[in-house]
Specification:
single chain; 411 residues; mainly alpha; Amino acid/polyamine transporter I
Length: 411
Amino acid sequence: MKRFFQLLGPGLLYAGAAIGVSHLVQSTRAGAEFGFDLMWVLLAANLLKFPFFEIGSRYVLATNQNLIHAYKKEGSWVLWLFLALTIITMFPIVAALVIVTAGMSNSLIPSSLNAFQTSIIIMVVTMLVLIIGRYKLLDQMIKVVILVLTISTIIAVVAAFGAEREMVETALQSFDWMDKTHIIFLIAFIGWMPAPIDIVVWGSLWSQSKNEQLKQKPTIREALIEFRVGYFGTMGIAAAFLALGALIMYGTGEALSPNGAVFADQLIKLYTNNIGEWAYPFIALAAFTTMLSTTITVSDAYPRTVREAIRQLFPHSPERRLSYILWMIILMAGSLIVLSQAKSMRVLVDLANTLSFITAPILAYLNYRAITNNSIPKEFQPAPYLKIWSVFGIILLTIFTLFYIGWRIFA
């Protein structure tokens, strides 16, 4: 057990990055708007992507390198493609995280600041935490945050099953597979469920950092157990948020607001309506720290990823620390520009999720090629059933993406 807690880190950082917009926002929306109709989609999306998410841990143990190194081995054009996809998606994704976090902050601590002004403060705090604290602070912080959120979520869901609510007949709706707005939401919902596949690369970078801190390198079994605890834990929490939306808001006629601050207040009341008003500050703090940790985790991952990609492409690029800080500043500035142009939180979240949906099959294929390469020892490669699972997943993700693109063009 002591050894397990020493190894905890990359899997929980994955959880910290995943349990954010996809869980607090999208899963709750799915339950509030369609009841339990999309629960099977949530579970299927998690299971479909599972083989791809543990590739990062496997690759680091097999090679002592991260997945960006694997892309470079495939050819510089592959790494250029990955770098382009990363830069295209990172600004709207971080912007979406920050605006939701700002809404949580304004709900927890009422102030005269608007969401955009609060977002600027959050970005400055994020930069300071990452530049001063680095990986070690992330590793320590995330363990407490995930524990608090998990306990409070379980309590809220159990209480919600006994809650009374007034149903409005006209507010009851089922998911309509022929409705354009429903399909757009579904694409966004799947895109970040449980997280964008970019996170596999982030996981390999975090695993590499964690292994450098350990005196004894983990075995493949230890690394996979540590990761799977985080992965299936996030799946359970996503299902819990969907259930909260379905049990408390579905059929009441109350719609989740596209405004970040209003949404945050509605979300926190999902808990306090069942546990009691006394719990409001505790639940609000748990929700805020969850979004803040997600923002910080993802804001660390993107500069770390871009820095490593540029280092692989240009060996004589600026010193790693300087490059990391430079890309951190670019990320924050670009995200603020996106925020200033966004019409609402919901538009921003759907845009970020849709971009993740479209890029998923490309990244899944690149990661599968990396771990099944002949240079990877067999004991580190996925078992045959996981390889079949992966190929099936790549095919389905590709079909979904092509269908979505065709539907958007010709519908």
